[in-house]
Design brief:
The protein has 252 residues and is mainly beta. The protein is built from 1 helix and 15 strands; from the N terminus they run αβββββββββββββββ. The chain has one domain: Jelly Rolls. The structure holds magnesium ion.
Length: 252
């Protein structure tokens, strides 16, 4: 009896393929979980971790000393780099994620090249200082610099696919999908990091495979790390400091 049932199942399944049954290629399980999206796509959806709510830097600490809360200035629903206090990073560590972040170059920005509103978003901070993987933040609305160091570049590794900069004084968005690198026990790379990024809704990095951590001089290389904080740069150039708001993350 069972034998005939099995035979029938095999025959009918084979027949489904043979006749081009669309059901043969339908996936019904698993079912992606339902997430209530925000009213606008820049607002945090229901399952996001809010990294800045417009009021408090409680999710951020000083990079120089992680026991010290971030010292940057919070006002009017945003926070601004407080020059000389150094980089800040998230209190929590992450691996793979989707991140939304908004930033603004001051309207009265001065300077040129890399000294014009320079900051940076380190997608994983692997140590102190400027360690990690930097996507550049800079005013490149009407400011030329080396292409692999302009806004939305993976600094000195990948040119942005477009220059989508808004004018100084206007809020801009980054939406980023980060896949962290994986390492073998001996420290060698199991799989490199990948990044996809949108600047003001324009695709600027398309699943770019990173060659290693960002370095100012020389060639990038990897060193083993696990889950890492996200870091923002106090660059120290003499131009007016830049501001951030509405930062949220979904772990993947
Ligand atoms: Mg920078």
């Amino acid at each position: 009896m069972h034998k005939y049932l099995l035979l029938f199942a095999m025959v009918s399944s084979a027949a489904a393929f043979a006749q081009g049954d669309p059901k043969a290629t339908e996936v019904w399980s698993p079912v992606p979980k339902v997430i209530a999206p925000a009213a606008t796509s820049t607002d945090a959806p229901a399952d996001a971790i809010i990294l800045f709510d417009g009021k408090s830097l409680s999710e951020w600490v000083s990079v120089k000393d992680a026991s010290v809360p971030a010292q940057w200035t919070v006002a009017n629903g945003a926070f601004t780099v407080k020059k000389g206090t150094g980089n800040i990073q998230t209190r929590r560590s992450f691996t793979d994620y989707q991140l939304h972040l908004e930033w603004k170059i001051p309207e009265n920005i001065t300077g040129e090249g890399q000294a014009r509103g320079n900051s940076g978003l380190f997608l994983a901070s692997t140590g102190g200082g400027d360690s990690g993987y930097e996507i550049q933040i800079l005013d490149c609305y009407n400011n030329s610099t080396y292409s692999n160091g302009q806004t939305a570049s993976i600094y000195k590794q990948a040119l942005p696919l477009a220059n989508a900069c808004r004018k100084p004084g206007e809020w801009q968005t980054y939406d980023i999908i980060w896949t962290a690198p994986r390492f073998n026990d001996d420290g060698t790379v199991k799989s490199p990091a990948h990044v996809t990024a949108f600047h003001n809704g324009v695709l600027v990095q398309n699943n770019f495979e990173l060659k290693g951590e960002t370095v100012y001089i020389g060639k990038p290389s990897y060193r083993k790390h696990g889950p890492s904080p996200i870091k923002l740069q106090d660059h120290g150039d003499p131009s007016e400091p830049i501001s951030f708001r509405n930062i949220w993350l979904r772990e993947l």
